[in-house]
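ping. complex inputs:
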Amino acid sequence: MFQRAGGPNRPPIESEKVADTVFAQYDKNADGMLNQEELSGCPSLQDAMKYNIDKNEDHQLSREELVERLSQWANGRAGVSSFSCRVTKKGKPLAGAQVQLVPE
Ligand SMILES: [Ca+2]
Ligand SMILES: [Ca+2]
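pong. complex structure:
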């Protein structure tokens, strides 16, 4: 098994950036959590809630939970075949922010 530079406990910068963008877009009430209603705007994430992404099982997605999952996906360790989430900012698509992580 390979270990990436930076150690296994440090989320890649990309995951942090993606999480920020996702929350900027979907956290409508800005409480730092994505609830079921907010997740309905992003079917891929809503789907992901079925696959242990919701660590504390409060049916809401925290930024930490998202970053952790994104990191796992980025490292290709999760059993999710694909993740696609179109990110827009202020109603306009954010250039280069289409998120697609496909584990090998
Ligand atoms: Ca929220
Ligand atoms: Ca949670």
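The radius of gyration is 13 Å.
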